[in-house]
């Protein structure tokens, strides 16, 4: 399956947030979307998952038009979001948060198997499964947010600022697992990152977004040769 945006336009009131955004997330690939604050990265994620209406353009998933579909239908098609800020149910247990990720499904055997897979990816969540999510560390909460998304058995994951507020060693561990999910389970990932160095390390292809537009795209090895990219995004 492939996710594709073609000339997507989006507004907040009279202010245009996305101005003709086109990008592709091929099946099984990890694609990065980087850019400064306010560039439109999160709006892109919200537009894909149906939480922000687009004013123009097309969003296709496996050739199916997503525009106008409710978020639960888009999730059922195989697209899940790991939102910026995690958005956990902090007073609920780890286990119950994971089950919330699978609210569209009723097969108890499948739910149990998927939860076991999540616990194997993030063993600390098994240890904390009866704890309230709000008592977890920031890194553990991010792991839980990813695990909650995986409970829907997605084919594509939209990951928004997973490194936010985390120490470098925790960022590395989280992305190591996400890379494993991508390579071994074949889950395509669109990772939105303000920390460009993280995206350069883990994505196979990168889009740079500035002022609501895709200003540049290419594989990391090519982009890293660009003086503007090195100065603006990599601090070189």
Alpha-carbon Rg, integer: 17 Å
Helix and strand composition category:
alpha/beta
> Rough shape?
globular
Order of helices and strands: EEEHEEHEHHHHEHEHEEHH
Find the count of extended strands (DSSP E, 2+ residues). Answer: 10
CATH topology of the largest domain: Rossmann fold
Helical amount among residues, as a percent range?
25-40%
CATH superfamily of the largest domain: P-loop containing nucleotide triphosphate hydrolases
Please tally the helical runs, counting DSSP H or I stretches of 4 or more residues: 10
Would you identify the CATH architecture of the largest domain?
3-Layer(aba) Sandwich
Contiguous low-pLDDT stretches (5 residues minimum) are none
Please identify the top-level CATH class of the largest domain.
Alpha Beta
Mean pLDDT: 93
Strand order of the largest sheet: 6-7-8-3-9-10
Total of domains: 2
Q: How is the biggest beta sheet arranged?
A: 6 strands, mixed
Tell me the fraction of residues in β-strands, as a range. 25-35%
